[in-house]
């Protein structure tokens, strides 16, 4: 803490209050302290910042009373049990906990940074964090000393195990498939800044194009900055972009969407503009939610084993509880391509559309 204080030119007392989550320090100062602590490696020190509550070795059965796992899934970006994606992931967590004979406490609306104060840490084995979670909430859980595993999210300030679908390889495989069909004008649709998964999917798409001697769109392209991904509010922007490209005779032959929800909306917009899928433009998605199969045409996508992600997170948490000193892991779950009716060989020259 003294090193952090010297680095920032503040007192050790200020650093202590900022890292402990107590009041008396402005949000700006607290943020500076946290960032400095991360850069100086403070969060990675086993004896710094937090003391583990678990003894080394396989002690799970020797912890009577700790019979529940906390599942933190803030209801942002439609992360809830009714989601076609997140709901399946939650089912996987629930199923594995039931098999382990453990209960589940779901917190979806944490209020402030002191949400842990309403819980009895002695009654909780550990925590599984699902989806996008604010750093302040993760720090609060980290302060408690609970072992934790994050699913489909990671935070540079919080050292812990993570579980992801192999987004990069899955998107690269799908893009290579389209290139193999003959597509040379491919465009990514999504928001590379929306989540870690979206960013990895963009990287997989871009890498596949570059490996095949094709030039991906620039970082300033509007289709990489779609707003309202969760709600479909981007539809007007997509429609305007398609109309501009159609007028300029520069329509791509394939739109590779960051997820199925975007793909469903893109198919609808294209239909409204009189463009057929896949006749005029191939459209693909990612995740394999139910809506992708039910869409007309059904959408080519990547199947993410959502339930398996949840189950694997629980198993990793049990391993972490039993062996707290083991190296932290980033686990990648394999994904599979699902070819459906929204993709085909390009049936027109790039930039043109059927009349």
Automatic annotation (TrEMBL):
Presence of keyword Transcription regulation: yes
InterPro entries named among the record's database cross-references: HTH_LacI, LacI/GalR-like_sensor, Lambda_DNA-bd_dom_sf, Peripla_BP_I
CDD domains per record: HTH_LacI, PBP1_LacI-like
SMART domains: HTH_LACI
Keywords assigned by UniProt, alphabetized: DNA-binding, Repressor, Transcription, Transcription regulation
Pfam families (UniProt xref): LacI (PF00356), Peripla_BP_3 (PF13377)
This protein's record includes keyword DNA-binding: yes
Domain of life: Bacteria
Species this protein is from: Paenibacillus oralis
PANTHER family reported in the protein's UniProt record: HTH-TYPE TRANSCRIPTIONAL REPRESSOR PURR-RELATED, LACI-RELATED TRANSCRIPTIONAL REPRESSOR
UniProt protein name: LacI family transcriptional regulator
GO molecular function term, any single one: transcription cis-regulatory region binding
PROSITE patterns tied to this protein: HTH_LACI_2
Domain HTH lacI-type as annotated: residue spans: 1-42
